[in-house]
Amino acid sequence: MPIENDDASARAPSHVGAAERPDEAGVLAASRALDVLDSEPEPEAEFDALARAAATAGGGIFRAQLPMVGKSGAPLWIDASGVRLTDDPLELMYVLTDISVLKEAEEVRVRGIALEAQNQRLRETGRLKDEFLANMSHELRTPLNAVIGFSQLLSSGLLPPDSPKHVSFLREIETSGRHLLELIETMLDYSRLVSGSVTFHPTHVHVPSAVEDVVTALAPKARSRGIDVRLELSDERMDVVVDPRRFRQVLINFLRNALKFSHEGGVVHVRTHPDGPLGLRVEIEDHGIGIVEADLPNLFSQFSQLSSGNTKIYEGTGLGLALVRRLVESQGGEVGVRSTLGVGSVFHFTLPGDAAPSRLA
Known about the structure:
Layout: H1 8-17, H2 24-36, H3 43-56, E1 61-69, E2 75-84, E3 92-98, H4 100-155, H5 164-195, E4 203-206, H6 207-217, H7 219-224, E5 228-233, E6 239-242, H8 244-261, E7 267-275, E8 279-286, H9 308-311, H10 320-329, E9 334-340, E10 344-351
Parallel strand pairs: 5-7
Antiparallel strand pairs: 1-2, 2-3, 4-6, 7-8, 8-10, 9-10
């Protein structure tokens, strides 16, 4: 339905009068909207589309908000209502209202909501960082104090070299030193991953041997808690092409978590399955404390740990699972978890198995 701009303002009130008449302000707004519409882009095309929609709409009524441009070049928003007056699809009437001010107000409101959400995320990130730093300080001080304390005892001369405690104290120093090294390596690895300076070196890895090596390395921890680690390794996918060091690192993190959160005397299952033509899926299942459902979405996020009640009982930096996620995803894989509170958890990761050497972007 073509609209002539030169006499639109005079004709607009009569158009409004053919339908349910809005208030006087609405009539003036419709008149002004018609008067300032420019021919580029063509408003006729917009209204023709509206007319077709009104002709086919249920009840013969259609309404839309149309972005247009005024004669001054400024953008406008027009609220256009179309109604079919008779059975003839060309017998139509429009009611037009300039709603540019309302649209601007709505955009300001939406931007305000988005900004507040962003501020909330920043506050939450700041809170998690504060908790992380406090927790990391504790994690570092604990083994450091052990190293310093046992070293002072040994160097004081109060303990005879042939005393059974002498060897025990040396072992405590070694254990604390290794724990410190693991903490520092975790922080450095995560920092390098974030900065994009980690290079992967995929090669053929024999999966059963790699899994058994990790289980053997963590066997002392499992024995100390009476936990039985059971292997269920598939015969279908014995070899994959992955970075062997990173594969071991991911598996160690998952298995260590399973041992940490399992009940004493429990069982942990390590399973491997084919995943796609060349890929591998590894699952680690425990029957421990489980995870609150609300914690699952953020479990692999940086600085994230379980609820505060758990972090007071179980050690951890809050970077382990975030590091695992980045290591796996950087090689084209995925991580995931399913868990039931009080029943246990199943963590898994997949790797494509045909990776090519690459640098994390």
